[in-house]
Amino acid sequence: QDGAFVYVPRGTEVAGPIVVTFARYGEGEALRTFSRCLFVFEEGSRARIVIDNRSQGEEAGLDCQVREVFVARGAEVEIVETIRANDRSSLVSSCWAEQRADSRLHTLSVALSGRLLRSDLRVRLAEPGAENRTDGLMLSGTGEHIDFHTDIVHAAPDCTSRELFRGIASEGGTGVFSGRIYVAQDAQRTQAFQQSNNLLLGPGAHIYAKPQLEIYADNVKCSHGATVGQLSAEAVYYMRQRGISLHDARRLQMFGFAGQVIGRTPVEGLTETLEAMASAKIESM
Q1: CB atoms within 10 A of CB 22
Q2: What is the pLDDT of residues 132-172, one digit of tens each?
């Protein structure tokens, strides 16, 4: 029904970001959409993509997306995705990416609101020298479920991947991170790092973290880890001793926690916009 096709020819550098917007408005009726995006970046090309998913009205909606990304030899691609659905709408997406030799792909996903958000990202590092960075932030409010699944496959030697996911869940909110790094037998000298850090704001908040390593090569440098905890009482106390209210101290700590992911925004000028979005959501949590 819908979607976008982006093709960047060989050796082409796109100066500004390419913006793909999915703004959904049901005109008083429930909305169901199915979309496919195909992004092709040829050898030596450079481009930045901004994908904005948002609800324009209050109607219920279900959006099912498929995205395919092909990054050829030596290409450098940066993709930033934001999700802002209303509390009656859900988004389920699946992204498959393949990288060739010496390519660079950086993906940042920021999930801010929605009844159910499910993102499934699969990346294959198919040739030597490919580098991948995958970052994500989920801010799950009351009645919201945000779910990130990643699968990074190192199929060739001398490739690097880095993942950083952070989540905050308020009372009645749920977050999930499930990530796997797979290193094939021939993928020697792989470097792969994965980290998931999460904050719970109440006894009714839930975050489930499941980092995974599956390694069949013997000359690798890999690590993974996950933390789930609460706001630092010591840090809150420190700020209150300096005249900051309890409310502001908690919000500052949450914003600093989320800001470490937002600060990785690869698109110039977008950091401030993401900070404003995250700040508004944190204020409501």
Answers
A1: 19
A2: 999 999 999 999 999 999 999 999 999 999 999 999 999 99
Both tokens of 18, joined, read 């390419």
Q: At residue 204, does pLDDT exceed 80?
A: yes
- Provide the mean pLDDT of the chain: 93
Token pair for 251: 């919000």
- pLDDT tens sequence across 115-125: 999 999 999 99
Give the whole-angstrom CA distance, residue 130 versus residue 189. 12
Entry pTM:
0.91
Cα separations in angstroms, 113 against 152, 175, 185, 223: 26, 12, 40, 30
- H or E segment and range at residue 272: helix 271-283
Q: Cα 153 vs. chain centroid, distance in angstroms?
A: 17
- Bridge-partner residues for 166, per DSSP? 137, 197
Q: Would you put residue 11 in left (φ > 0), alpha (ψ -120 to 50) or beta?
A: left
Q: Following DSSP, what letter does each residue of 1-70 receive, concatenated?
A: -EEEEEEE-TT-B-SSPEEEEEEE--TTS-EEEEEEEEEEE-TT-EEEEEEEEEESSSS-EEEEEEEEEE
| CB-based contact 97:71 (threshold 8 Å) | yes
